[in-house]
Fold these 3 entries.
Entry 1:
Amino acid sequence: MKTALITGITGQDGAYLSDFLLKKGYKVYGAERRASTRNRTRLDRLGITNEIEWVNFDLADLAGMLRVIQQVKPEEVYNLAAQSFVGLSFDQPIMTGDITGLGVTRLLEAIRIVNPKIKLYQASTSEMYGKVQAVPQNEETDFYPRSPYGVAKLYAHWMCINYRESYDIFNCSGILFNHESPLRGKEFVTRKITLAVANIVKGDQKELLLGNLDAKRDWGYAKEYVEGMYLMLQQDKPDDYVLATGETHSVEEFVDAAFSSQKLNWKDYVKQDPRFMRPSEVDLLLGDPTKANNVLGWSPKVKFKDLVALMVESDLKMVRDNVINI
């Protein structure tokens, strides 16, 4: 039985990855920070919370990470933890840099000290491309991040490459383009949209306030993307891979698809609000997953409109059943 340690396990990707690895026969350790309250709602929804072995783990605490890795002895570590909300990174750039950037360096050091044979998956992001230098973006495209979050992720990305080349540590960075699901947090625009549609249908909400409707993203289904993470660590040689659909859609298209799925005209409910505009915006992200297709045998299957409808239906069920929202 293989052992995996997952940071950020209570998030969208962590929950789906845990479910995937458990079904593969892994022993899964969930790394979470000490907190007065635990939020394991996503894992509860998948019915796997009690199958996880829990450990306290903080990307700001190298000594603590050393103890946990020595105790758990994982063959694979999946680092999904970060301050991952782009908007918040402008308000808290120092904290974002410390956790999302330096936290990965601490993790790499812990692996190097305890057992350099441990395989590491690092969650990189399409936000590193930012002000895009080429369309579509692949593993060779130059980076130009446009947020403190993107900058911190790029630092972590290059530190992984440096430890790979300097210490022969097997690590792979997944440059994942936007991936959504019913387990997406409410602070992200996609879930904000689908939850609003559900509340409008129920009669609990009258309008939806959004920022830039013109930004374009490559949106896929998170449940499919975690399989790509797993496949990266099963290869003979470590490398970095773009996971994407190869299609781009604007926020307005996402809004239209969400409202149209319930036979509603989005223009009757949506208003733009300057409070939700970012100081600098990423206008267009479009990934090229050719390398992942060819090397990993990975390709997305769920289409854009089907993904949006899936999220709306899930939120409709939640609001109708008065379930506590993620």
Entry 2:
Amino acid sequence: MQISCGSVETIIHDHLKMSKVSARWVPRNLTDHDRARHVATSQEFVDLFESDPDKFVWQIVTGDETLVHHWDPESKVESMQWRHASSPPPRKFRTLPSTGKLMATIFWDSKGLLLIDYLPPKTTMNGQSAVEAA
């Protein structure tokens, strides 16, 4: 088309009012069934609260899972230091992070921690239980 990049940018930004944006991360792409299940669960929570508001918070148990790395090297940004202009720059040796990691499942309630469970290495967690990977 033999048009400059600057002209293309002007047309896209100024005339067409377009801009380049990144996608926003969302937790899940829920199906209609999942949404209906969330509504039903929320209604159960409302019913529990209305039946005994003082006891409601003490009945909730929640959980989460996370990957626990055996060793996590310090990043370049984390290792930055304030230095005088005349002092030599700090040295950081190249290292490789460990590939070892475990899945930790954690449960807690309003009083504190209830359980931390580690999934054995080379196993996969599904909806029913941990199944050993092939």
Entry 3:
Amino acid sequence: MANIFGYFSNDIGIDLGTANTLVYVKGKGIVLREPSVVALDTASRKVLAVGDEAKRMLGRTPGNITAIRPMKDGVIADFDVTEEMLRFFIRKVSNTAFRAPPHVVIAIPSGITEVEKRAVMESATHAGARSVETIPEPMAAAIGVGLPIEEPAANMIVDIGGGTTEIAIISLSGIVFSKSIRVAGDELDAAIIGYMKRAYNLLIGERTAEEIKVRLGSAYPLDEELSMEVKGRDSVAGLPKTIQVTSQEIREALADTIAAIVDAVRTTLERCPPELSADLVDRGFVMAGGGALIRNIDKLLSEKTGLPVTISEDPLSAVANGTGIYLENKD
């Protein structure tokens, strides 16, 4: 019976991220990539928009609409809204008219509790999944970037997402040691918001902070420093204001948060068994996730650890691709 269901259903892999959700459909690849944002009617809690449409509303809604991100630090902050969001995404990719409900594989942070894990599984079941399986995020990322995880050798992955940074050393298809810290893309955005307020009395929103991070963010001095114009509200005068910001300033603003990520990487390396440490001297480690796109972060990590660092080809899709490869080759 399960085989019949499998034949008529679209099995899917989900990277349920704090910032973005990606959906991989078996046999088709990644078919959906949308922000993990939901817009609700404040009074009735009715869902008005999900994904891209809802993200455009962040920080711009009238009193009767709220745009929220139901995931925080890689875990569910609002159960009902996450369920609605998953239902929307599952329906969007599975043309349910002629198909059985899908079997779903969801990537979850390695450091979450059993209660948080159960919340993710229940949420997916209520959203219309036939059955739900979870895979640790660093394992999915390692599979997604093509690391030879089944070999008896050290494979190390550093996945900097929106809510968590996942670091793991994998050998013989198992996690030898992993560390999950709730410091990642969102913390970097918050650091930029705080810096703007301190240095310029300028109030900016999440979307502006993210844009500054993408356009100016760096972890190490650049060959050619960048600058951009930032618009916000003057916290003293209360009026709109425009300022010019440079990449040096943003690097300074991000320094503490990036230092926390570097510390977590070093802690993981300190806990690595000696035989596997020897493998890492030559192999180094691979970076994935949106945070891997911060300019020169690989250079900084290489300098601080003394190991070669590679950024994966498509860091944003690594975890979703990993859930997909896992679905295609379950054995």
